[in-house]
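Many introductory courses stop at the sequence. We go one step further.
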Amino acid sequence: MVFLIPLAIIVLLGIYGINIYNKLVKLKNQVPEAWSGIDVQLKRRYDLIPNLINTVKGYAKHEKETLENVISLRNSALEVPNGKIADQAQAENALSGALKSIFALAENYPDLKANQNFAELQKALFEVEENIERSRRYYNAVVRDNNTAVETFPSMIIANMANFEKYPFFEIELEERKNIEVQF
């Protein structure tokens, strides 16, 4: 009987440790799954941008620098290596700002604003932006749960022993929070 109590405690601690480990694995696997949701929406955005640029080119020929900047930022965002979430977030924030400037630019061209193709592309891009925001919130919630589990006691003991890591949030930069100024 004297040996059964310590044995029971060891078994219970082992079961508890296994449960914590399994929870950490589940959380770790949710992070790439959540990122893939963002990645799908980013791909949709990348596919819409050339059509948007071509539509705007016809109306705003002397806004070449703005259009080239958007294409350059799109290409830069496409070139970010997989897994570089902080770099991807920075590239996407810059691209979002440039896209806002195109829609602000459209305010100066009534014919462009009235163009059906431009209106449809603008609507599609706004939908993609909303989907990116929803995906970003989901990703950040999954990252928060993972990071909390990795940093809190007692799961941090198992996380450190098994080399579980924290992941970066996909955050909005301060520049993206500013409103684009439209001048007439």
